[in-house]
Amino acid sequence: MAINLQKGQREAINAPKFTIGLGWDTNSSSTGAAFDLDASVFIMGDNKKILADEYFVFYNNAKSPDGAVEHTGDNLTGDGDGDDEQIKIDLSNISPQATEICVVVTIHEAESRRQNFGQVRNSFIRVFDSATNTDILKYELEEDFSIETAVEFGRIYKRNNEWKFEAVGAGMKGGLQDYLNKYN
């Protein structure tokens, strides 16, 4: 049975291999343009900075150099039920310098399309066992992000040699560039 998290809640992940599923629905009629939401992963060290450029995983850099994080592909519309994008994680292969994995979702070309997360609904992040397709935990974003174009859904971090998940749900107005500035 999956644990449903609240914002700020933390939970241990007792599985070395799992998949992160991200999902959302959009109200495309509000701007006339289709929504293209993109999941990105920042693999960081103790200094809260990306280990190297190659440890920024997204649709154009689908796999981290250590092979521990793999983006399965870009969903351009978010149509349909279930996960819209997925990221596979294998903590047994992760770089020893890695202590945090930050999962961010951004709206592609949000400014030119006049889109924001206030027009996105039913957003969630879930962590599930890939072998059994069983949810380990889930966090549903319930906040109204009326001006934000990027949201940190959650983070996986290492404390006392144990990996945990934190439900973050924090938005930024400057899109992906804000997170690149923060973590570089």
Characteristic terms for this protein:
TerD; six-stranded antiparallel beta sheet; six-stranded mixed beta sheet; tellurium resistance; 184 residues; TerD family protein; Stress/Tellurium_Resist; mainly beta
Short description:
The protein is 7% helix and 44% strand. It has 184 residues and is mainly β.
Structural commentary:
With 184 residues, the protein is mainly beta. Helices cover 7% and strands 44% of the residues. The protein has a 6-stranded mixed beta sheet with strand order 1-10-9-3-7-6, with no helix packed on it. A 6-stranded antiparallel beta sheet has the order 2-12-11-8-4-5. The radius of gyration is 15 Å and the shape is globular. The N and C termini lie far apart (37 Å). The relative contact order is 0.26.
